[in-house]
Amino acid sequence: MPAPAPEASTKPRHVAIIMDGNGRWAAARGRPRALGHRLGVQAARRVVRAASERDVPVLSLFAFSQENWRRPEREVRMLIHLFGRTLRREAEGLRSNNVRMRFIGSREAFPASLRREMEGVESLTAGNNGLQLLVALGYGGQWDICHAAECARRDGVPIDHESLSERLSTADFPPPDLLIRTGGEYRISNFMLWQLAYAELRFVETLWPDFDADDLDQALTWYAQRQRRFGMVAEA
Question: Which superfamily, per CATH, for 14-140+178-224?
Fold first, then answer.
């Protein structure tokens, strides 16, 4: 049986963002892709701060998909190095600003050193009760559903809406109310396929390195004007 529709609200409980456009930002300026990714980290920092200041309960950032492993090996190594360096630099700031950071996705293919950094930040911020920051690394929506189904099968329970929802990587959080994708692409690219069933989808032309608090405010204002019916009629 489908879950009951959540109550409508002008404020999203969970904002998810597909951060797209780092490489194109750099290419348009004749700069290396690595620069675009480094500036993308700065954009993520701005948005995390803005979401926290605006009392957004949950923010999810799609940082590295399972499909991204197919990128050139040199770029993948650079991204892994950037992830690790960013975690080391940002960990204390997240803790002191009451942000709790968690990771979703398959960690198996990442180096042990990065996995230790991820676990360290999760442990350091575990007691924080402000913004809940989910970072998707090695994540894919199809993987998430298949993994949940395998867990349900292993637990010997029927595979249904409830059993899968309880075993998704986001089981502790409400599903996204608002998805933002930057970079001018109009697809969700295997991100939270189950969880986005009734999310409001906002696609913007802004490349991720240029995305800032004003862009987030525009998205929140747009969301507040949406009429969310969850399959019902407006009068209901």
Answer: Decaprenyl diphosphate synthase-like (3.40.1180.10)
